[in-house]
Amino acid sequence: MVQSDSGVLAAWRRLWPSIRSSWKQYLAYVAVAFLLTAATGVIVSVVVGIVAVVLLIPILVAAAVVHVTVSLASPIGLAVLIALAVLFLVALLVVGTLSQVPVVTSLRYYALLVLGDIEESFDVLTDRRPSVADR
Length: 135
What we know:
The protein is an all-alpha fold and 135 residues long. 78% of the residues lie in helices and 0% in strands. The chain is built from three helices and no strands. Helix 2 (23-69) packs antiparallel against helix 3 (75-118). The protein is elongated, with a radius of gyration of 24 Å.
């Protein structure tokens, strides 16, 4: 679609003969991509979980200090606890995004490399592709 500036249906019409002729390679790609996606998803989830626990400890300490010094029934205490919860959620969102972006980018790059290896006319990474001697 990017290379020929075409729509979705035109791109599928162009890709379909390649899928029919090299179906085993595409099937192998789907299997490997599924396993890579599952494995990296588990790894990223574990990393985000560990960081969440590390970030939760100071938030809980701050919440305990707020609870001891200011009554939870007061609006100030409730506002501080809500602010701490929002801060924790924003920090998790940032950590999740920062850990997910490189994984998704590398998986998409892998997909483009496989597509270019199967069908040379679809290769959009010709200028960035390593030579055969480098592989």
